[in-house]
Amino acid sequence: MVVDSVAKVFEGRDASVEALREISLAIQEHEFITLIGPSGCGKSTLLRIVGGLIPPSRGAVAIRGRSPQDAQRAKDIGFVFQQPALLPWRSVADNVDLPFALNKQSGGDRRLGSTEELLALVGLGQFARAHPYQLSGGMQQRVAIARALIFDPSLLLMDEPFGALDEITREGMRYELLRIWSQARKTVIFVTHSIPEAIILSDRVIVMSSRPGEIREVIPIDLPRPRDEEMESSPEFVAYAARLRHLLHA
Ligand SMILES: Nc1ncnc2c1ncn2[C@@H]1O[C@H](COP(=O)(O)OP(=O)(O)OP(=O)(O)O)[C@@H](O)[C@H]1O
Ligand SMILES: [Mg+2]
Q1: 152, 165, 181, 207: which could form a disulfide with 112 (CB 3.0–4.6 Å)?
Q2: CA 7 to CA 81: how far, in whole Å?
């Protein structure tokens, strides 16, 4: 997919906010890309433009040659946000199935697998009949990931999906996500404030500068895959972390 000279200005009644300035980026199929940058630099805005939720002020995005709106209509984009937004009165299985149920009328939609297969993919095979209140935060986020994958989208957009989790759960979820990604081979754009998360997950880390958001640097992460927790103490990892910290604080 291609992001070509995207800019975004939010026009207010009294003032306008220049959120993004000239973002250009080419992303390969199955690539894992992370956006990192100061609060307010436009990471969520960029994700929302790529996902077709809001239009850019200038520039364009092409996802397998289509506009984000067309890709979204074709169910080719999955979203995961900071809050899992599960319906408390529906079981885990029924929450995963919700997009499919809502879409029944149109019919003929492909899906990645059965509800059981999707729950097994995110490690919740035993919890189909449970309700969200019976799950930990990390488990609820797994449900949200399964739900986002139901239509087998080629692109998965994740906006700080682990931002509300405690640190220990969060560290485990990195490796869970890598396991899911290696099985379900999606292109992922992932937003985070966590430097270790960005390094361990990504093929490339995009460092953005503060508002108006621009790409400050693109850092390819040349650690071998599959990645594991031991890598987090390797000299290469530590060097990437120092580099990112320097860029983010400069
Ligand atoms: N709908 C909107 N209307 C007006 N301004 C907006 C709107 N959405 C975002 N902005 C502004 O655009 C800028 C970028 O916001 P955005 O939410 O994309 O930042 P972010 O990088 O995701 O920040 P954070 O790390 O805190 O989530 C901010 O200054 C924000 O106030
Ligand atoms: Mg944000």
Answers
A1: 152
A2: 22
Q: Which residues have CB under 8 Å from 92's CB, separation 6+? A: 119, 124, 127, 128, 129, 130, 131, 132, 135, 143
Q: What is the pLDDT of residues 45-77, one digit of tens each?
A: 999 999 999 999 999 999 999 999 999 999 999
Instruction: Give the whole-angstrom CA distance, residue 143 versus residue 119.
Output: 7
| Rounded-to-10 torsion of CA 205, 208, 214, 217 | -50
**Tens digits of residue pLDDT in 6-21:** 999 999 999 999 999 9
- Ligand 1 atom nearest to 35, measured from its CA: 21
Domains along the chain?
Answer: 1-76+187-250 (3.40.50.300)
pTM: 0.96
Which amino acid is it at 36? Answer: I
CA of 99 to the centre of ligand 2 (A): 24
